Amino acid sequence: MKIYTKTGDAGQTGLANGTRVFKDHLRVELYGTSDELNSVIGLGLSFLQQELQSGSVQEESFQSVEEQLHAIQSLLFELGAELAGFPTEEGSILQSDVDHIESWIDDMNRDLPEMKQFILPGGEASSAQFHIGRTVCRRLERLLVHANRTMDPSDAQPDRNAGGTRNETQLNETNQQKQGTGEKGKKAMDANEILGSTGMIWVNRLSDYLFVLARHCQRLNGGQDIPWKSRMQRPSRKRK
Question: Which of 26, 63, 19 is nearest to 45 (CA)?
Fold first, then answer.
């Protein structure tokens, strides 16, 4: 398989449906951010593996997290394909995927101390990396919300009449429908989602999972949460 094709040298790329779009197209931003998140998670797992090799983390604990993260990374590939326009009837994310990630969150959270204040991102390398993953996942979620509210899923689909993509007038008309109120506006939005509700829930849960995983990895390494202290809690900032 040849790595470079030279077809993207002019700033365009091909979506999963074969349509050519510029690389700043929203769909490209969506599946690119999903890919970024996948890579960030992979680096976090590599850090955790190093902590295993150093003796800071137990083999059983590592294997459990590794199995979960490999499942998540595989789903992110499925999600990326859907965001790139690959046709799917039931969606790339199923309710069972949501159930699994919620179960993993509950299992890890059960052994963690109760949170009574905000904590600072950081700590051991794996913990700090999964905090980064949490923020990238939140960015993906924001992009998906924006896409569902403003983008027509058939944008960048081949226009059989004109031989190109949907024109700007058609897209503006669709956006105006989505911004409507009442049941009619709601139906237009539901019918034109880039990612369905189950996928959106899963992405939301994934950011929660990565937050809890960051705390879990800190505990596996024998560390504790780093508490946030407001400026009024810092000795140098106390009022006299």
Answer: 63
